[in-house]
Amino acid sequence: MGYKITGAGMDRVSQLWRLRRRARRGALCMALFCMSMAVLYTLCAENSVPVTDAIFGERARTRAQPRTHSLVKVLRGGASKPIYVDLQKLPGVIPGDPRRPIPVLSSLNHSLETDHRDHRLRPKDRKPHGGFMSWLPRPLTRAIETLFGGRRKGELSGAGSDTEFFGPNGTLGEVWDDEMSSTMLGKRLRKVVQNYQAMNKYGVQFPDVGAAARHPKRSGPELLCQLKDTVSITTLTPEMEPFVRFPWATQLPPRHLSMDIGPFKTCAVVSSAGSMKNSGLGKEIDAHDAVVRFNAAPTTGFEKDVGSKTTIRLINSQVMASDDHRFLSSSLYSNGILVGWDPAPYSSDLNEWYNKTDYPIFLQYQRYRRLHPQQPFYILHPRVEWQLWNRIQENMAEPIQKNPPSSGLLGTVLMMSLCEVVHVYEFLPSRRKTELCHYYQRFIDAACTLGAYHPLLYEKNLVKRMNQGLDRDIYTHGRVSLPGFSSFNCTRGLPSAMH
Ligand code: NCC
Q1: Which atom number of ligand 1 is nearest to the Cα of residue 91?
Q2: Residues having CB within 6 Å of any atom of ligand 1
Q3: Is the overall model pTM greater than 0.85, yes or no?
Q4: Is 258 among the domain residues?
Q5: pLDDT tier, 139 (very low <50, low <70, confident <90, very high otherwise)
Q6: Would residue 232 count as lying in a domain?
Q7: Residue nearest to atom 30 of ligand 1 (CA)
Q8: What is the pLDDT of residues 419-473, one digit of tens each?
Q9: Ligand 1 center to residue 448 CA distance, Å?
Q10: Cα–ligand 1 centroid distance for 434 (angstroms)
């Protein structure tokens, strides 16, 4: 009898064990099923392109994209014939200084490598997952992040836990991290940036480069007020020394640009980045009251992505002077208001600059004016560039390149002085981020986006900190929203009325 009871008991115990084993197997199967469904979903969902990119890296999708293999072979404008370019005209080369060419064409794997040793990363910026997640293969963790928050389309934080941008594991789902530093760049680009950081072509004197590292970071509104109070957008006028002494100076507009145009309600700043391509932003851009474009960036043939309205074209002196750009004859420059600029020595007056321009901006200005006397054409006062440069440097924890800011940032601040609201497109790269330098050329170089000669990396940090829009807008539209200077009041140190 006792034997029978024990047998039944044993049966129940082993039944229980079997049940538990089955439950464990079932749970394991369910987990595996969920994971495979997660991977399938990321591959097949409607937003499959960005998510696939997030999992496998953008390069997997764009492998077919043409790229340069030699330092001088550059394919332009879709032409199949290679055009050999002057090394001086590559982004990592100091314009106007033929003795110091530093070509920085990016290579497949060296554009941006993660430097996890970067001690400046804040704890919140470190990889959020450890333990179990760290044992999973990279594609799976990316898929899980995509599905469960970290990388969901349009809901991305700028925390920037991953600092690779264009590499095989590129974080296409991330938006610009406002603490990007040269230590996060790939070896080659980092070297180029560091070389520029060590050079001082314009005799920049900045008393305390490391100050920003010792002080708390300024907030967006504080930065906006700093810009408003200390960067004064002015253009050359005929009565300024030394121009007052030259007969040709009567060709200069008699008043500053801001007295002749604006104020505008909404303005668009269209960067020339490759990520403008296939953006479909043309209509949105044209809906603004004023649009600024840069250098040789065309609209014809690219209307769908960049629009067709051009209110102002900001051009550097290299474009004005180089034969390639046919500045005097090309119809590209004949629309809208032209604003030219050229870097002056850091602490020079207009006299010294006049005799020491990077490119012959004044000669070209006179020639252009003779050919197009009706078109408004201003020249930016060179002190604007250095006022702006000072603002960037004093807000960065490391020394930045001692070269003027890019046309993109100059144009952005110019529009902030003329408009109530400024939308900047693809200055901070969207989900379309690419090593393609310009939307209108087939030239691949990460330096165009991350900077070599210009302190672009830090310019972008500054713009990200001032952005009043959402990270989602940066991710989907490459759009940053900045208030114009007239839209906020800084009398008590902080803007009191933002629009
Ligand atoms: O390339 P560029 O700029 O004409 O671009 C205009 C502005 O768009 C932003 N940009 C561009 C490309 C990219 N991938 N990401 C971006 O964010 C930048 O803000 C940039 O300023 C210039 O600033 O004037 C610059 O001009 C070119 C070049 O002179 C002209 O394109 C004419 O060919 C410079 N390239 C070289 O000197 C080779 C570039 O360094 C900066």
Answers
A1: 38
A2: 89-91, 95, 271-274, 294-296, 316, 318-319, 406-408, 427, 437-438, 448-449, 453-454
A3: no
A4: yes
A5: low
A6: yes
A7: 295
A8: 999 999 999 999 999 999 999 999 999 999 999 999 999 999 999 999 999 999 9
A9: 6
A10: 15
